[in-house]
Automatic annotation (TrEMBL):
Residues 617-626 have a biased composition (Low complexity). InterPro entries: Kinesin-like_fam, Kinesin_motor_CS, Kinesin_motor_dom, Kinesin_motor_dom_sf, P-loop_NTPase. This is Kinesin-like protein. GO terms for cellular component: microtubule. Keywords: ATP-binding, Microtubule, Motor protein, Nucleotide-binding.
Length: 677
């Protein structure tokens, strides 16, 4: 509150007292002039006195006003101090209050300096003092009211102080926490700055790494492209290398087969039943390695003959590529001749047949049983194993089954009608494409039921016909430099009818005619084999040899199994069979000599054959025949004919009228009437 302004507004405004009394009556102009002058002089003196008093009073009033101004100034200062420090300095407020009271008392009790001559000046000073006193009291009252208000504020401030003290503690606690948080914030800020720097460095590293990766990626792509090119080149080189290696292996394989001869002869002695007495069995001598391998190859047969002096015991010696004894199984036999099946899958022409008398084990060797599968079932399994072992080749297998009976050809893939088998020409024989070994086996099993058999004195189930099972194997190259090339092979598996002496077998009528036809076919087959060995013209004069013509020509490979009986009662026929085998062995030696001569002359044109010879002896009851087999020195060796070989496969039938057996077999192949490729 501005007390100075208030005091200035409330200062006394009453007029100063007059020096002349207006109510005095006027004197007579003349009489009373002296008196008047006297009175005027007195009045002047009084007026001077009054003026002096008034001057003194005015001085007093001026001093009083000065003091009041000083007091007001002090009050204003105190008020400002009170306003500024009242809340926090309550003790000072009491001190100021005391000072105010003391100051007020000193102002009120100050004696007046005016003289009271006529009482008017005293009354004026008294009025002034009362006025000042009243104003001071009012001001003091106002100040006391303000002080009371300040005390209330003090009490409230005290309470607020107590609350503030608690609040101050909380504030201090908060300040401490704030300080801690500030420290933490500073640390966090420092950490953030460090993390920012690390992030910036990581970003920079990442950018550098990305640039490096881009460079590496470009280099990798370039290297990858180069590697692809190199890989393709390597693949091409490897394919070429593989093709060359396969060609080399095939050539070596063919050379080995050529060294073994285009005509191979093996012998198998039928196992005798366990209940047969040893005295009823022939003595074939101890197993002796022959001239063709380290295995049993020489047969020393102890045979008897009648002479003028009685019965003569002599030893007959026969050499074969290998002899299978009574302990050897069909699996052992197939392991020895499986390379020929491999040749057929590579595009060669191969024929395997079993030759021997009735009851010598031909059918068992070729077909076998469920417990001991023969050559034909094992061949079927091997063909499809080869066909499925490599994705680089695609194989197609077709099979034909015919029967040659009394110089007539019957197709066993065609179901007989009204008990009569389908008689066909060779060019009309049916072929069935098979996709699995199971399908081929099912076809074979069904066709075998139509084969002609009969009981003879030698065998209850004697085959009276020749069974020819032919396979056409087409191999197509799918990869490498030879992709698209096709190789076609033919494999004939022949189960010949038994050779026998018709008179000894007690044959009559139909069996007599069958026996004559069988022996004629076998004789013609022997002539063909001999001609092949000698390199002379091959006489295909019978239905059997005509059916095998495609696989018995130049470049073909033929294996003859000579099947013999172990019983003494069959000695004469066993010796006859072994003699036929010996003739085939001569043909084998001649073919080997011719092959060696061709190999020598092809390597060294104009060179003479190498000298040296091997002697293979075949002992007969009367003489010992020596057959020379040398490197081109044999008299029987001749230059092979250059005429073109004919198609090895039997043409497929063009007629669709016959019912095919294949259509009746759920697991069989599809019959195709077109001409084989």
């Amino acid at each position: 509150m501005d007390l100075r302004g208030q005091y200035k507004a409330q200062e006394p405004t009453q007029a100063m007292p007059a020096t002349r009394q207006k109510g005095s009556p006027p004197a007579d102009k003349t009489a009373k002039q002296g008196v008047a002058k006297q009175g005027i002089a007195k009045q002047g003196i009084a007026k001077q006195e009054t003026t002096k008093q008034e001057v003194a009073t005015l001085k007093d009033i001026a001093e009083t006003r000065s003091e009041i101004a000083n007091v007001s100034q002090a009050l204003l200062s105190l008020a400002d101090v009170v306003k500024t420090y009242s809340k926090n300095n309550s003790n000072k407020l009491d001190s100021i209050n005391t000072q105010l009271e003391t100051l007020t008392a000193s102002v009120i009790q100050k004696p007046s300096t005016t003289t009271d001559n006529n009482g008017s000046a005293s009354s004026t000073g008294e009025d002034t003092r009362r006025y000042v006193e009243s104003r001071l009291k009012e001001k003091i009252a106002q100040l006391e009211a303000e002080i009371l208000a300040q005390k209330g504020e003090k009490r409230r401030g005290s309470a607020a102080g107590r609350d503030g003290s608690h609040a101050t503690d909380e504030v201090r606690t908060l300040q401490s926490k704030v300080e801690q948080e500030r420290v933490r914030a500073e640390k966090a800020e420092a950490t953030a700055e460090h993390a920012t720097r690390e992030r910036d460095e990581a970003i920079a590293d990442r950018e550098r790494a990305l640039e490096t990766l881009e460079d590496i990626d470009k280099k990798w792509v370039a290297h990858f492209e180069e590697s692809l090119v190199a890989h393709e080149n390597i693949e091409e080189v490897l394919r070429e290398s593989i093709d060359r290696e396969q060609d080399r292996r095939r050539q070596l394989f063919d050379q080995v087969q050529d060294l073994k001869g285009n005509i191979r002869v093996m012998c198998r002695i039928r196992p005798a039943p366990k209940w047969v007495d040893e005295g009823e069995l022939m003595d074939f001598g101890a197993p002796t390695p022959g001239d063709f391998s380290d295995k049993w190859g020489r047969l020393n047969l102890q045979a008897t003959r009648k002479a003028a002096m009685g019965t003569v015991l002599e030893t007959k010696t026969f050499d074969f590529e290998r002899i299978f004894g009574q302990e050897d199984t069909n699996e052992t036999v197939f392991d020895e001749i499986s390379d020929l099946v491999q040749s057929a899958t590579q595009g060669k022409k191969v024929t395997l047949f079993a030759y021997g008398q009735t009851g010598s084990g031909k059918t068992h060797t070729m077909l076998g049983s469920d417990k001991d599968p023969g050559i034909i079932p094992q061949t079927i399994d091997m063909m499809f194993d080869v066909a499925n072992e490599s994705p680089d080749y695609r194989y197609t297998v077709a099979m034909s089954i015919i029967e040659v009976y009394q110089d007539a050809v019957h197709d066993l893939l065609i179901e007989p009608e009204h008990g009569k088998k389908a008689r066909v020409r060779l060019s009309e024989a049916a072929w069935a494409e098979t996709e699995s070994a199971a399908a081929a086996s099912a076809i074979l099993s069904q066709a075998s039921q139509y084969r002609t058999v009969a009981a003879t004195n030698a065998n209850d189930q004697s085959s009276r016909s020749h069974l020819i099972i032919s396979f056409q194997i087409t191999k197509e190259h799918l990869a490498g430099n030879r992709a698209g090339q096709v190789a076609k092979g033919t494999l004939n598996l022949v189960d010949l009818a038994g050779s026998e002496r018709t008179a000894a077998a007690g044959a009559t009528g139909t069996q007599m005619r069958e026996g004559v036809s069988i022996n004629s076919d076998l004789m013609n087959l022997n002539l063909v084999i001999t001609a092949l060995g000698n390199g002379t013209r091959v006489p295909f004069d019978s239905a059997l040899t005509k059916a095998l013509k495609g696989s018995l020509e130049k470049g073909s490979r033929t294996l003859m199994f000579v099947m013999v009986s172990p019983f003494k009662k069959d000695q004469s026929q066993t010796v006859q069979t072994l003699d036929k085998g010996a003739e085939a062995t001569k043909a084998k030696l001649a073919s080997i000599g011719r092959a060696n001569n061709f190999a020598t002359t092809s390597k060294k044109p104009g060179a003479s054959p190498a000298s040296g010879s091997k002697h293979i002896t075949s002992t007969t009851p009367t003489t010992t025949t020596t057959v020379k087999a040398c490197n081109g020195a044999s008299a029987a060796a001749r230059t092979p004919s250059r005429r073109q070989t004919q198609n090895t496969s039997i043409p497929r039938p063009s007629s669709n009228s016959a019912k095919s057996l294949v259509s009746r077999l759920s697991s069989g192949g599809k019959r195709t009437p077109h001409t084989p490729r």
